Amino acid sequence: MFVLGRQSGDSCALARVSPAAETAGGKWQIVYAIVKSGGRQHKVSVGDIVEVDRIVGKPGSAVDFKTLLVVDGDQVTSDPWILEGVTVSGEIVAEIKAAKIDILKYKNKTGYRVRQGHRQKYTQVKVTSIETGKK
To answer: Are strands 87-97 and 62-72 parallel, antiparallel or unpaired?
Structure first.
């Protein structure tokens, strides 16, 4: 389920809402986490498919991410002591490659020309759960 919400700088944005995040008061809570993978940070919620730097593993195998921040409704948690109990789990969907980048080097009047290419490898991971440790 998606809910229309506002973020700074955006006219409007869609936010993913966990189906199990409904409170007794009938309000929906948005649950997401900021995780670190391969030197980069990603904003994830349950059901998202995220492209991270290549992780060794076969499709269907489980992976865990280091959590940097968790937003559970109105409660924001960034304390490292509390985040030790938070686990963000996912499963590998596929390995993909980015578009090819052409690298051209040229020096004038010397005949120096070098052409090189690069394709970055990524792993698509589907986030299966964000366990905050509380019920």
So the answer is: antiparallel
